[in-house]
Write a structure and sequence with these properties.
The chain has about 350 residues and is an alpha+beta fold. It is built from seven helices and 17 strands. About 20% of the residues lie in helices and about 25% in strands. Helix 7 links the parallel strand 16 and strand 17.
């Protein structure tokens, strides 16, 4: 039986569109899902149906009939997982590069979802039929920390944090070009590229706000490369890759946004060979922090994988630097760290 949820419109929501109000109130649902529920009459306003663009007046009672969680049709597969943490509510993994997060055209099997279904057997269903338990994603060739949920309550709890941008997400990226400033913020909207449908763009006709904060960790002057620590305020598709390319500093090895085309220009032959052999972008989600449904603030870390570490070690040795100097303190203040104990 489908569940229903009642929502009360208060004075602060006056003049807000109905679909926007539901998007804020029900973070586990996508905008397209909300529109479909309204169009299908699953959303009633004071007992009657309405339209997505209806302007709220205040005081209305909205009832939403939520769809039943869909059973996962993806096959469970015994794919090895690097588990950082697990409890009855969620599981945190260190995703390797080349692993697609969920089934999609061209990748119907061999994904993180297939692996999680085999490992957990009890993932939440609100993420969608082919995305059980998934509340966020990493690109196929980006490695790092991800969390998946095992029940619908946890899924909704974490989805609200992602929508409120309260999740702590930090990345390491090696980019082409020398970034002059020590730190900065990129606030450029991102949407689907008008011509190249596999790409995103800051010049799209339809886009959403995207904010990336970055800090320089190291400049490798002779090789014209910069190592950055980045944090996401928003989580748009390809966000860091698009924003870096917009600064004319594409991520090293990125085949879609200009990083791969820069390989031939690397003067150091050994470095050029190492980058050419990567077969991935130099982008790693090294830290993820969120509030567990039990109220505990949790932060997980995963070391930079060996194929990226090898390049860093070569650069650090070449410039007589030390990798131990690269750590920067958490931006959100003191928290209990849960490191990657298997790396």
């Amino acid at each position: 039986m489908s569940a229903s949820q009642s929502l009360q419109v208060t004075a602060e929501h006056v003049a807000m569109r109905l679909d926007r109000f539901l998007d804020d109130s029900l973070p586990e649902l996508s905008r397209s899902q909300i529109k479909r529920l309204i169009d299908e009459g699953a959303v009633t306003l004071n007992g009657g149906t309405s339209k997505p663009g209806f302007k709220l007046r205040g005081g209305e009672e909205i009832c939403v009939v939520l769809p039943d969680p869909l059973a996962a049709t993806a096959e469970a597969e015994p794919i090895p997982l690097h588990i950082l943490y697990e409890d009855p509510a969620l599981v945190v993994v260190n995703k390797p590069a080349h692993l697609v997060v969920h089934p999609a055209p061209g990748h119907q099997s061999g994904t993180l979802v297939n692996a999680l279904l085999h490992h957990c057997k009890d993932l939440s269903g609100v993420g969608g039929e082919l995305r059980p338990g998934i509340v966020h994603r990493l690109d196929k060739d980006t490695s790092g920390v991800m969390v998946a949920t095992k029940d619908d309550r946890t899924h909704r709890y974490l989805a609200r944090q992602f929508k409120a941008h309260s999740i702590q997400r930090r990345y390491r990226a090696l980019v082409h070009g020398l970034v002059a400033e020590t730190m900065g913020t990129i606030d450029q909207p991102i949407g689907r590229h008008p011509v190249h449908r596999k790409k995103m763009s800051t010049a799209a006709r339809s886009s959403r706000r995207a904010v990336t904060r970055w800090q320089v960790l190291r400049r490798y002057e002779a090789d014209r490369m910069t190592l950055l620590d980045l944090s996401l305020e928003t989580g748009r598709t390809h966000q860091i890759r698009v924003h870096m390319a917009g600064m004319n500093c594409p991520v090293v090895g990125d085949p879609l946004y200009g990083g791969a085309s820069r390989i031939k220009a690397i003067a150091d032959q050994k470095l050029r060979q190492m980058v050419a052999a990567l077969q991935r972008q130099f982008l790693h989600a090294w830290q993820l922090g969120f509030e567990h449904p039990n109220g505990l603030q949790m932060v997980f870390q995963a070391d930079v994988p060996s194929e990226l570490q090898e390049i860093l070690c070569y650069l650090e040795g070449k410039y007589h630097y030390s990798l131990t100097d690269l750590e920067v303190p958490p931006r959100s203040g003191p928290v209990e760290m849960i490191p990657d104990e298997n790396s």
